[in-house]
Write a structure and sequence with these properties.
Blueprint (H helix, E strand, L loop, with lengths): L1 E5 L4 H10 L5 E6 L2 H10 L6 E4 L17 E4 L12 H25 L4 E7 L10 E2 L9 H11 L7 E7 L1 E3 L6 H9 L2 E4 L8 E3 H13 L5 E5 L7 H12 L5 E3 L1 H8 L4 H4 L3 E2 L2 H5 L9 H11 L13
Parallel strand pairs: 1-2, 1-4, 2-3, 4-5, 5-7, 6-13, 7-11, 8-10, 9-12
Helix pairs in contact: 1-6, 3-4, 5-7, 7-11
Length: 316
């Protein structure tokens, strides 16, 4: 099966490419910098992964590769893990996602639809919801993150094909994404952020790749899916588990106003509470490889020799 990935050099895209390529999938990465992307995957031992240039606004140069039997995984968009969400960067976060979605829609109009489209979104779709249990049928939330996710999903809403939406929680990876800063905070003895009662949806990067493959192959599935582990964790429980695995004692909390002063609106990623459950994946009998936080953390640390370093290749 041919799988075309936009945003394929990001954390989820790399994890998915590393997972699918050894299984015989024909993986094509659509990138604004195809030569750089090709070098990245070649250095990581996967020269069979193809990289094709795209401008993230049209079907030029890649649209003809789309067939009625292929899959598209749309992950493209500026990273939200920017230390300051200025007005200009907020606009970039939203516009980059909408342009990519519109480019895919134009490609489908010209070349016909693929067999399936997996559309990225995030747990931010639900906004700050306190202790409310959130399934895929829960209403969308308020705020910038919620609005971005809603418009991101809507950008491909009229795709004439089967479409699965992945509302992904915090992806656990030692060297990319939002988890490394949390790991550093836990290592210097931080016990919680703000009250510590806010829920933090999380998922091991291997389970993200496995869940996407599951959605690609299960032709009866469509619509939104919460990509998070079945074991939920509050901010405090999450950090305490990290510290237990690292054998570090918890000492002090980080007040919300300090985090806001340091990160601005990006602090909402840690301060918002989203008690997600993967209801639809569970009903579809998807089996998580790392359903508990302790299992996920022990695997990551074992995989990398028990102690994270600052820069390493990404492996799945």
């Amino acid at each position: 099966m041919r799988v075309m990935i936009t945003g394929g050099t990001g954390l989820i895209g790399r994890a998915l490419a590393h997972f699918l390529a050894p299984q015989g999938y024909e993986v094509i990465i659509l990138s604004r910098y195809p030569e750089r992307a090709a070098q990245l995957f070649s250095q990581q031992g996967l020269p069979q992964i193809q990289t094709v240039g795209w401008d993230a606004t049209s079907a030029q140069g890649w649209g003809k590769l789309m067939t009625s039997e292929c899959a598209i995984v749309n992950l493209a968009g500026a990273t939200p893990a920017h230390w300051r969400w200025t007005r200009a960067y907020r606009a970039r976060i939203l516009e980059s996602r909408l342009r990519a979605g519109q480019a895919l829609m134009r490609a489908m109009e010209r070349y016909g639809p693929p067999a399936v489209l997996v559309q990225a979104s995030a747990s931010g779709y639900y906004g700050d919801r306190g202790q409310e249990l959130l399934t895929e049928t829960s209403l969308p939330g308020q705020g910038f993150r919620a609005r971005v996710c809603q418009e991101w999903e809507a950008s491909t809403a009229y795709a004439p094909t089967r479409r699965c939406i992945i509302r992904t929680g915090l992806v656990l990876d030692l060297y990319a994404g939002a988890f490394p800063p949390l790991m550093r905070f836990a290592r210097v003895l931080g016990s919680q952020v703000s009250s510590g009662h806010q829920w933090l949806p999380w998922i091991h990067r291997v389970d993200v790749a496995r869940a996407i493959q599951f959605l690609l192959e299960q032709c009866q599935l469509s619509g939104p899916f919460n990509l998070c582990a079945p074991e939920g964790a509050t901010n405090r429980a999450f950090l305490r588990t990290v510290q237990a695995v690292l054998r570090r004692p918890p000492l002090f909390p980080l007040p919300a106003f300090v985090l806001r002063a340091l990160l601005g609106e990006l602090a909402t990623v840690m301060l918002d509470s989203q008690h997600l459950v993967p209801e639809r994946l569970t009903e579809a009998t998807f089996q998580f490889a790392y359903p508990t936080l302790s299992q996920a953390l022990h695997h990551l640390l074992r995989e990398h020799g028990g102690s994270p370093v600052e820069k390493r290749k990404v492996h799945v």
